[in-house]
Amino acid sequence: MNTSTLWLLLVLFVAIAAGFFLGRLENRRRRRVRRKGGLNYGLSSQPDHAIDALMSNRDTDPDTVDTHLAMGRLFRKRGEVDRATRIHQRMLDNGALPENVREDVELELARDFLAAGLLDRAEHVLLHMVDVGSHHSQLAMRHLMSLYEQERDWHSALAIGERLLPRDSTVAPILAHYCCELADSLRGNDELNPRRRLLRRALTFDPGSARASLLKGRLELAAGNHASALRAFLRLRNGREYLELVLDDIQACLDALDRQDEMFDLLLDASLDQPSGAVLSRLIQQLKERGGQQEASQFLGQYLKRYPSLHGLSEMAALEQTDSLDILRTLNARLANDTPRYQCTQCGYKARKLHWQCPGCKSWSTLRTPPTAT
Ligand SMILES: [Zn+2]
After folding, report:
1. CA 363 to CA 20: how far, in whole Å?
2. What pLDDT, in 10s, does the model give residues 231-284?
3. Distance from residue 344's CA to the centre of ligand 1 (Å)
4. What is the pLDDT of residues 280-334, one digit of tens each?
5. Element (H or E) spanning 18, and its range?
6. HSE of 363 in the Cβ direction (CA atoms, 13 Å)?
7. Which has the closest alpha carbon to 311: 268, 272, 280?
8. Helical axes 172-185 vs 154-164, angle rounded to 10°
9. Which of 31, 217, 241, 335 is most deeply buried (CB count within 10 A of its CB)?
10. Distance 97 CA to ligand 1 centre (A)
């Protein structure tokens, strides 16, 4: 054995010994921490004992209350809703809690029930909070609104939302959606007037409600009131994702009213205002019918300089009928097929069809056509 091997063995021995002693030190430290009790006490292994030990005192000291609230939130966040509920219920059992703290705990308990999907119980707690005028009653009403949304109980959602409205005007557009949901659920000719009333109410809450205008337009179109339908549809001309939905309806109204000429101006205005594939296609079609292919090509060439888009290029391909552009046209069609048309501005959820309420984050009217999807 030469010297360098000996040295190597020595170094190895020291390393192993150091590891061994450090490990024992760490174990002893851990035992000390456990004996001292506190929040570290078996939280992972026996959490229920931990909670019971922690909650056995009927402490109303603000620090302790905050710790309990923080623990409850932590458990709920980790999906251990049972334990969160247990903490909050035991806190409420403590008769000596100050009123504002009791109201904080009630809100947390309601959130536990919501997280567990126990909607009846959540509703019970939240309604109680609203009734007694809790300092969280505004939040409670918001929670109730989303609870009723989940249950698709639009009458209750509307009723609670109307109570919240004087204190929080930002809910007005949501209330308009509730009215639209109710109007949408009514069918048949006997329901025409109740539906009209609901849509009027929606527009009172939110005069810019695209959905109310769309439903109103479709209702009047089906009832044969073309002028009234057209007025409603034209209110949608400022939102391209909505205008695209009613181009056929507008055409039907104009045909019935013998005002076909107005379509061209409408399309021209809309296409210069905000690029939209559907509007552009129709406009090119009309240009071709009126001034022939050359005029259509000329317009499209200018248009593409201002609003370059694959869809526009593909329209050009159809007009010019060149082979190379035709490949582009096929590619664009395939791309359009694969690309979701709508995207939520809040959470990024992508969808092929327009949802009024985002299926991802449950926000209302946030699904839009991304600027690239023209
Ligand atoms: Zn969303």
Report:
1. 57
2. 999 999 888 889 999 999 999 999 999 998 899 889 988 888 777 888 888 988
3. 5
4. 889 888 888 888 888 888 888 888 888 888 778 778 877 877 776 777 778 777 7
5. helix 3-35
6. 13
7. 280
8. 160
9. 217
10. 39
Distance 366 CA to ligand 1 centre (A): 7
In angstroms, rounded to a whole number, what is the distance separating the alpha carbons of residues 180 and 69?
39
For residue 355, report the distance from its CA to the centre of ligand 1, in Å: 10
Strands (E), 144-231: none
CA distance 362 to 184: 19
pTM: 0.78
Range 111-132 average pLDDT: 96
Chain center to CA of 257? 39
- Residue written as tokens 């021209």? 268
Give residue 115 CA to ligand 1 midpoint distance, Å.
19
Helix H, strand E, coil C: the string for 57-98 is CCCCCHHHHHHHHHHHHHHHHCCCHHHHHHHHHHHHHCCCCC
Distance 353 CA to ligand 1 centre (A): 14
Q: How far is the CA of 357 from the centre of ligand 1 (A)?
A: 8
347 C-alpha to center of ligand 1: Å? 4
- Beta pairing partners, 368: 343
Q: In the structure encoding, which two tokens stand for residue 35, read together?
A: 């004996």
Tell me the DSSP string of 275-296: --HHHHHHHHHHHHHHHHHHHH
- Counting residues of the chain whose pLDDT is more than 70, the rounded percentage is 82
Among residues 52, 44, 42, 108, the alpha carbon closest in space to that of 81 is found at: 108
Distance 117 CA to ligand 1 centre (A): 20
Give the distance (Å) from ligand 1 centre to CA of residue 350.
9
DSSP state of 350: E
